[in-house]
Fold these 4 entries.
Entry 1:
Amino acid sequence: MHTLASRLRRLPPSCGPVRLIGVDGHAGSGKSTFAGRLAAALEGAPVLHLDDIATHQELFTWTERLQREVIEPLGRGETAHYRPYDWRTRRFGPARALPPAPVILLEGVGAGRRALRPRLARLLWMDLPREEAWARGRARDGEEQRAFWDRWTQEERRHFAGDPSRRYADLLVRQRTEGYEVRPGLATAPDPDQILTHSDGPSAVC
């Protein structure tokens, strides 16, 4: 993980002074866990979860608000402010500050959408088939969220049909029994030297 973090730090800024790294993939594919571990390897890089931006009414139609509240201020080198959405109370919470940092991770379904790609220094895709990812997500959230998942899968399917991310990913991330394997994505010319295997154990090859 530290090798990947080092490479990301060396990228040129993509959004004002920020290297904005998108972590996209199907719901349930492990984006949040991976982003958390990558943020730790980046010595505490901020993570903006798109679950805090999306709402019940705007599962995928939040682009304009994200641009206005987060992307544009960061692009000017200013602190962004956004109000995270509470999925239980169905209300926005108090404003949260997001100062510009050398690297910020943008994590969530749709992080690699076409409107955001010009601002991304790299796009990472969690490479887990959608049916497997959705099954994991349903198992995680339980019967209580069954109706929501039924709606979500339809909306996610529609989103990626019109605005796919995987084909534009610079790197594909695959979770292994221990750690992650990172390979060049379809947007990157294949290079065997770029294949990285990350593990939390002492035998990591980075």
Entry 2:
Amino acid sequence: MTEHSSRATPPKRSGVLGFVRDNGLGLFFTVSFLLALVGQTIAGHADFNNQMAADRLQQVSLGEYITTSDFAVDVSENWQSEYLQFFLYVGVTVWLLQRGSPESKELHKGGTESDEVQLVGKYAKAGSPKWARAGGWRRAVYSHSLLLVMGTIFLLSWLVQSITGVAAYNEQRLRQLQAPLSWADYLGAADFWNRTLQNWQSELLAVASMAVLSIYLRQRGSPESKPVGAAHGATGVEG
């Protein structure tokens, strides 16, 4: 069997079981995300009402809580850090390499690579996306579409965090009989950067750990790991 045929895309399976099998990874993380969001909502509601009780203020229902700035800022500050992680990872792995890591390209492949390798323009295959076969701005946009979308979601979620964050921060200041801050002032406040950087550092540490630990450690059968018997110095090899 040739290398090309061994990598051919298998036919889609029909029915519910076939759909679950073909989309198991996306479904697992989507369901896990929803369960975690529900759990955060319940726990956050309880914590918020505890704070209201401590301040001798009226408690709120669960429905009212999810419309508060406190809930919105807690959600958005996590989203923006996650999308920053992937935005940076997608972008820097074009050029930056890590010897021995399956998270890195092979050491001689740094850069955006040739049209032939990327299967664009005259090198596109029958199943290639239309914009990969096109030229001009459409190919240019599609060639960087993943980075553009990740970056856009990051910026939007960071904007939402700043807007909801200043609202939540000002509510707390008003309870303490302090003057509220403007949005511009809040962008320079310690509260905003404390919320932001505590999420960034954890995401960047996780990526660095994955890139380096996968040089020496293995998980049999995972595409995020090298084959168990691969040399530590083997780069860009997935299991």
Entry 3:
Amino acid sequence: MPRPRLALVPGEPAGVGPELCVRAAQRAWDADLLAFGDPTALARAAGALGLPLVLATPGTPSAPGVLPLVEVATPVAVQAGVPDPANAAATIAALEQAGAACLAGSLDGLVTGPVHKAAINDGGIAYTGTTGLLAAQAGREVVMMLANDIVRVALATTHLPLRAVADAITPAALERTLRILHAALRDDFGIPAPRVLVLGLNPHAGEDGHLGREEIDVIAPVLDRLRAEGMSLAGPLPADTAFLPAKLRDCDAVLAMYHDQGLPVLKYSGFEQAVNLTLGLPYPRVAVDHGTALDIAGTGTADPSSLFAAIDACSRLALRRARA
């Protein structure tokens, strides 16, 4: 079977993304990498790290020290640790070009580095996250899931103010999220009968309505309806005890109702090896599970573990899809 062909996007050029990609380019992978980004930022990162890097033309096989590149130049010179809104369009263009190549079938998956949301919005581009950008480009409904070797945590809502979360958890949205999650666990992860643990929204999962009715009025009816179709769904369960090891042993993924309900537990359990997956796209997309780390950008001290895990995960998912 041919090696997967993966797009690699560094993300914010002033962050740690370029140096992480340079470190990734030093390894032999079970996939061919094609980077989309600014060549000067990558070359400077290689120089700062003291690592060899040849930026080759697309179509050249990737190899240790050799990274094929689709050039997406930044109009303003990149200064490590200092994002420039003038470069926002180039950051977005790299993501869009890589996504388009995956949609066209010329690449088999997409690995993305960290993006600086404020710099993009300050550059005049309305942007809430790469997950939403790729979903809109593909015309698909998607679900964000973060995973490490201990737990998979999917999100019913993502980057919303806390006061907006309850209104966003509607029966239709929750059912759509669970169907996408269930299909991805089955098709992409090879789990024939996925078991999903669903958290409640309120403390103690609403305490029988005394601490909120979302569990009674919204979450439980959706779970009952999908259970009747054969899905294995536990909950809604209190979030403060749902991540106990005994409960995690009996599930394949946890569905949290909002970002900070589930992700602190995942990051505490294994931040360096965690990755961010976009479920529901017609190709696998895996991102690092950390930010741009502007405070250490250019110092050569950024840990590449999450990017390495993302490349490995995307390669495995691309191979599974090719075999399907």
Entry 4:
Amino acid sequence: MNISISTAHNVDIDYTPAGVLDRILATMIDGAVQLGIFLLGIMIFGLLDLPGSSTWYFILLTVIIALYHLVCESVFHGQSLGKLTMHIQVVKLNGKKLTFWDCMLRWIFRLVDISISSGAIAVISIMISKRMQRLGDMAAGTTVIRHEKDVTLKQMSEFEAPEEYQVVFQQASLLSDKDIKIIKEVLREVRKNSNYALLGPLTKKIKEITGIETDMIPLEFVETILKDYSHLANN
């Protein structure tokens, strides 16, 4: 089952939703990270031998751990360390950029979805929801999708191939001008909103149209396709 999301440029992209197991494993990894933060905090407190009551220190440490998911998802574009490890990401269903308030809603509902019910409500909600959403996702208009491993996004203002350029994929000629326009629009969307998850579905679509089989990383593949198309179209 795929989830179709429209970008700001009205380009429909099909995503593969993150499975329940992926999300559970990500939550377990995040739990381990939070435990590590707590133990590290205790160790630092012991080493520094801070004066005064330890109560306020423990309250501060508890707040930091409690805010872990909110801070991570709002700063790292819908990913915590657990989600990053599992290659999954929170995205808006309307294709817009994930905001702090979206992350806040998900974080507030986490208390019901996961904390109080030990994750039972979240699992049931994800399994019966059409778009595999927990209650927090429904409130924020988000879902969690699976994507290929992130790569560093390079500057992509120029895709014109030099005269001596050697075409890598001759099948790039099977793409239409409209296809190329969409590819460039999606890449602009990726750069603007730091939504790297778009690269996986975009690569999949290009491969379906051209029949290309390659293990090239998504960003390199898309840039190569644009250069190949430019060179083939002008020669």
